[in-house]
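User: Run a structure prediction on this.
Assistant: Running it now.
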Amino acid sequence: MMRKGTTVAVAGTLAVVSGLAAASPLQWQDNSLTYLYGTDFEIDPKTQQTFTLEHASGWNAGDLFMFIDSIQYNGRKDATGNNSTYYGEIAPRLSLGKLSGQSISFGPVKDVLLAGTYEFGRGDIKNYLLGPAVDLDLPGFDYFQLNTYYRHADTPDGSRGSWQITPVWGYTLAAGKSDILIDGYIDWVVDNDGAGPHANFHFNPQIKYDLGKALDWKAKQFYAGIEYSYWKDKYGIRNSRDFDTNQNLTNLLVKVHF
């Protein structure tokens, strides 16, 4: 019942956003393609190349973020015999301020939202997340979101869900004639009393130099830099002496916005 209820709630959120977006003008959008190369991954093959297609947009009803990763294992195979995989997320958020037509700001809070996410990938990965969120106005930050979800995996064993806290941020620093953009997120899946996957913590920032602006091209269009990934108990698998699931690595990154 919990799985069905969560599925219906997220599906309803997606349907509402889709309907409102069709009837409301688009406020802004950004699309990008990222290439990543890194080694020292845990659980999966050590060396990976990833192409990521991202979309972010703002609508009169809220906002939408989605991406899909195409991951290559450089000739190696994972535990299921695949030499590549894919993973994606669709994450709409409904803004109470936009829907009501009135400001819901107080203190550092700019807006209150209802956030949903659908996670999917190879191996029949299907996770559904839904919960409250706030946008914060913090000094120096381009944006700062704090999303809180109840997450549930669509698994045959009917494992009980858990809570997830996901801050998302962007911060720009001047660097000579160009800029350095530091953005990223944290996914913290809170312990669920031994039911389902173990609690885990994923810190995933990107540090990117606006190379396009430095070369006198269009600003905020072509970046080069790194992506850092620290993941404690990756995939919710408890780290042990015999099986290391704590990931700590740096990817090389190139990103183009269009």
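The first helix runs from residue 2 to 23.
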